[in-house]
Amino acid sequence: MKDTYELHAAKLLRESNEGVLSTISKKFDGYPFGSFTTFTTDRDRSIIIYASDLAQHTKNLKNDSKASLTIYNLNKKGDQQDSQRLTLLGDLKLADNQEDCKKRFSLFLPHSANYHKMHDFSFYTLEINQARWIGGFGQIAWLKTANWIKNSPKWLERENSIIEHMNEDHSNSIVSTLNAQLDIKDPEAKMIALNTDGYYVSTRGEIRFLTFMTCCLNMKQYKDELVRQAHDYREYEL
User: Fold this and answer.
1) What is the CATH number of the domain that holds 27?
2) N or C: which end of the chain has fewer CB within 10 A?
3) Residues 225 and 138 in one domain
4) What is the pLDDT confidence band of residue 78, given thresholds at 50, 70 and 90?
5) Any idea what the Cα angle at residue 213 is, between residues 157 and 222, rounded to 5°?
6) Rounded alpha-carbon distances, angstroms, from residue 166 to 131, 179, 200
7) pLDDT-derived band of residue 139, with 50, 70 and 90 as boundaries?
8) Which of 98, 128, 147 is the last residue of a domain?
9) Domain C-terminal end among 118, 147, 176
């Protein structure tokens, strides 16, 4: 059951770019302070946040790095209490690679370019240590931490070559996976970014996430999962 929760939680994470960030208040003696934020994810499941030094949550995290991010997908057709929610606990720290975060963030949230010239904005990463999933009534669990903690994938240095190879030589697999998982028929779809649990494609002016069945931290795992999708979704080729 938890394996199913894991897949649903990863999917919600990768398809989201906004949530409620809670930090520990510096001004009001340790009370939790929640605020809306936009975010994207790194190749692992670490959260990337772009924040001003003037923001209250930035002042808080510089005093105490403990934080949580709550992401949700409201059930708009029924009981909103019966909605998917994911809460991630961890430590919010200044990102080591500001330029890489900038490229990643700008890809998914292009409006962030408006803030690049402001010197008081920096990228922070939430390094996750616990993940709490609620998929609806009765679907509740603390998820295994192994796939949520910071873990730089071994295929990272080959990310660009993987994307280029897939788009040039295996575009039919990308197209069939998009069709199978999201019922989108687009022969021009392109792979644009990799994650440990799937990849993003550009299709008809949108960015959509295609999910793996397992978390892939090395080249063999990533290749095996791409081959599996090509085989399983062959009937969905256009």
Assistant:
1) 2.30.110.10
2) N
3) no
4) low
5) 25
6) 32, 16, 12
7) confident
8) 147
9) 147
Same domain, 114 and 176: no
Q: What is the mean pLDDT of residues 142-147?
A: 92
Give the pLDDT confidence score for residue 2 in this predicted structure: 57
Identify whether the C-beta of residue 54 lies closer than 8 Å to the C-beta of residue 20.
no
- The model carries a pTM of 0.91
Report residue 156: phi and psi, to 5°: -55, -45
Burial class (CB in 10 A: 0-12, 13-18, 19+), 214: middle
CA distance 18 to 38: 4
* End-to-end C-alpha distance for the chain, whole angstroms: 34
* Domain coverage including residue 194: 156-236
Q: What amino acid occupies position 173?
A: S
Name the domain count of the chain. 2
